[in-house]
Specification:
Blueprint lengths: L2 E9 L3 H12 L4 E5 L13 E3 L3 H10 L4 H8 E7 L9 E6 L1 H13 L5 E4 L2 E6 L5 E5 L4 E9 L8 E4 L2 E4 L9 H9 L4 E8 L2 E2 L10 E3 L40 E5 L2 H9 L22 H7 L7 E8 L2 E7 L7 H8 L10 E3 L2 E8 L16 E3 L9 H19 L13 H11 L24 H12 L4 H23 L1 E2 L1 H8 L11 E2 H5 L6 H8 L15 H12 L1 H19 L16 H10 L4 H5 L6 H13 L2
Parallel strand pairs: 1-2, 1-9, 2-6, 9-20
Antiparallel strand pairs: 3-5, 4-5, 7-8, 8-9, 10-11, 10-19, 12-19, 13-17, 13-18, 14-15, 15-16, 16-17, 21-22
Helix pairs in contact: 1-9, 2-9, 2-11, 3-4, 6-8, 11-12
């Protein structure tokens, strides 16, 4: 029987677990990851891709804060695309198709390379609080460990069941068991659980697909890496050991393609014939699935008037290996799924290597958590990832990063690290999760962020890197490189404000963007503010002496150029929103004690007092966003706090 002591133990090796483990280790506390299978660390349970609309912004936030997901994605990526480029840069979404097997290998090898980090293979059965506040955890095999904080990132494995038609099996992923004991332990500690559902589509043999009947989808001609450390002109990031080497761009490959096809009316007819045996429609699955990532049968049921739904055929590895049918998640009987697949163009001969299935699992009601992801009723216990009721690798990784940071900071006796809604997509997500009672898996969208003009993928470093450096997530070398870039951007902006372009110089840029041509000299900054121009072309013409493309050069990076363009493009909107953000920051700066008894403030309505006592907000801003708390009561609370200093 082992009895070893750690500062932080992270339970689970998925995307949340990876970030939580790396963050706690990086902040200098003794850290261990406990996972049922070390070889499954970083395994992509569903689609073989990272990023997308809003999700890509989360990955960029993680990277700016010193996390791993962007670096891992660049290493394992096989196709890179920037989504939504027909719209403004505020809603662009970087996305990368990944070699899912290699992603898992890179994640595992990265963690194994971190000196002092422990990887423990086993399953958590129970934990209990010791008299001195530490937590003792017991594994199924009887081994015991003592820790000052636990971060549970159990994904979809709590009391999980898998469904395909009338067939039911135990587990959270094909070939992997359910974690029933941990679910029972959480319930025994008074933690409210709820059932949720997710699913995955069939995987196909690529040799049986007629790709020539499908539309080809290539990556971008000039791909964007996820991590800023892989942009030409930036220093390489060595914070995770010497794993990435010294060449900033050599890992960003873009040589794989995806394909597009569609369902049709015949497909829908076959799918409907299986509804009677669907675990979703028969009531055998009680948990709700993600509204915005529905199964194919849910799409047919909800959107019966459509004659087809777009599907993406995505390779799971660089050598294709298996093909993932993005958009065809299903828990219908296997024979129905196969018949329906064979009606789809390009898939009439398809051989299924793994049939689609649904997973129902226990998740935690995240309103029981502080914005640090610490459980209000069990000090030292943190949660992150799908166990908190979210969907998606990116949302999970972001929560893992924040939970790992805050668990380590608490162990060190330092202030918690909480981001506001105006500072990052992570701040939006955390605020939503801990304040809104969800009845379905949460997914991030740009529309959830009221200040999305400020929360772009191009300015993640400008928003977050200084904060990360202050708490120790960004090292001095990385920080100095960002300061150099920031100073250079300031100097270039000064030049653009001071110098003018001739009509001929301005028109070289405006013609390419289809803009109205200049007839007189104009400040270069005014040319940069015109929508539709190509910033990279602009800087070549406007400030050629600052543009260097060799790695390690002293010039603006490509991302810096697009960042400066977006800042000027949206400049007219910033003044109004900045006032709103300032008001929000003032409210966030007013700290509230988690021990405050709001029932003593008789001037506040009884309903608001009850909700405030239930949520225990840490700031006045959080209190204002609790559903059911009246704005008038927040004003009363603010005055009450002022009167008491």
């Amino acid at each position: 029987m082992i009895l070893v002591e750690y500062d932080v133990v992270v339970v689970g090796g998925g995307h949340a677990g990876i970030e939580a483990t790396h963050a706690a280790w990086k902040l200098g506390v003794k850290t261990a990851m406990l996972t049922m299978d070390i070889n499954a660390i970083g395994r992509m349970s569903c689609n073989p891709a990272v990023g997308g609309l809003a999700k890509g912004q989360i990955v960029r936030d993680i990277d700016a804060l010193g996390g791993l997901m962007g670096l891992l994605t660049d290493k394992a990526g096989i196709q890179f695309r920037m989504l939504n480029m027909s719209k403004g840069p505020a809603v662009w979404g970087p996305r990368a198709q990944c070699d899912m097997k290699y992603y898992s290998e890179v994640a595992r090898e990265t963690l194994q390379s971190l000196p002092g980090l422990s990887l423990i293979q086993g399953e958590l059965a129970s934990f209990e609080r010791m008299p001195d506040g530490r937590l003792e955890i017991t594994l199924l095999n009887g081994d015991r460990y003592i820790t000052r904080a636990i971060v549970v990132t159990s994904g979809t494995f709590l009391a999980s069941k898998m469904f395909t038609g009338l067939e039911t099996s135990i587990g959270g992923r094909v070939g992997e068991p359910s974690s029933d004991k941990l679910s029972e332990c959480l319930a025994a500690n008074g933690i409210r659980l709820r059932r949720l559902k997710t699913g995955t589509p069939s995987r196909l043999d690529p040799d049986s697909i007629d790709f020539d009947e499908c539309e080809v989808q290539h990556g971008d001609e000039n791909p964007w890496p996820m991590s800023d450390c892989h942009i030409d002109g930036c220093v390489a990031n060595f914070s995770a050991g010497q794993f990435w080497g010294d060449s900033v761009n050599k890992f960003v490959r873009n040589d794989c393609v995806c394909w597009i096809t569609r369902t049709n009316l015949k497909t829908h007819e076959i799918l409907r014939s299986g509804f009677k045996d669907s675990p979703m429609f028969s009531g055998r699955i009680h948990g709700k699935g993600p509204r915005y990532c529905p199964s194919i049968e849910d799409k047919i049921n909800r959107f019966g008037d459509r004659d087809g739904h777009q599907l993406f055929l995505e390779p799971e590895q660089a050598d294709i290996g298996r093909v993932y049918i993005n958009g065809f998640s299903s828990s219908l009987p296997a024979d129905i799924q196969l018949q329906a697949i064979h009606t789809i163009q390009g898939l009439t001969r398809a051989r299924v290597l793994q049939i689609g299935y649904a997973v129902e699992y226990d998740s935690v009601d995240a309103t029981q958590l502080y914005p640090t992801f610490e459980c209000k009723n069990v000090p030292g216990l943190y949660f992150a990832g799908q166990v908190c009721g979210t969907s998606g690798y990116e949302e999970a990784a972001g929560q893992g990063l924040m939970a790992g940071i805050n668990a380590a900071l608490k162990v060190k006796g330092e202030e918690p690290f909480i981001l506001g809604r105006s500072e990052s997509y992570l701040g939006v997500m955390v605020d939503d999760l801990v304040n809104i009672l969800l009845d379905e898996p949460y997914r991030m969208f740009t529309s959830r962020a009221e200040y999305r003009l400020f929360l772009r993928s191009d300015n993640a470093e400008a928003r977050l890197k200084e904060k990360a450096h202050k708490i120790g997530m960004i090292d001095d070398v990385n920080w100095a490189d960002w300061v150099r870039r920031r100073n250079l951007m300031d100097a270039v902006k000064t030049r653009l404000n001071e110098e003018s372009a001739t009509p001929a110089e301005a028109n070289k840029i405006l013609e390419a963007g289809g803009q109205a041509l200049a007839t007189e000299r104009t400040r270069w900054i005014n040319v940069l503010r015109r929508p539709g121009i190509d910033p990279e072309n602009f800087f070549k013409v406007a400030v050629p002496d600052t543009i260097q493309t060799e790695p390690g050069g002293a010039g603006l990076t490509r991302r810096d150029q697009w960042h400066m363009y977006a800042e000027e493009l949206y400049a007219g909107f910033f003044d109004r929103q900045e006032r709103e953000i300032d008001d929000q920051k003032k409210m966030e700066s007013v700290k509230l004690s988690p021990d405050m008894d709001y029932m003593q403030i008789s001037a506040i309505s009884i309903e608001s007092r009850q909700r405030l006592n239930a949520h225990k907000p840490l700031t006045l801003g959080q209190a204002a966003r609790i559903p059911g708390v009246r704005p008038a009561d927040i004003t009363v609370l603010s005055h009450w706090l002022e009167n008491r200093g």
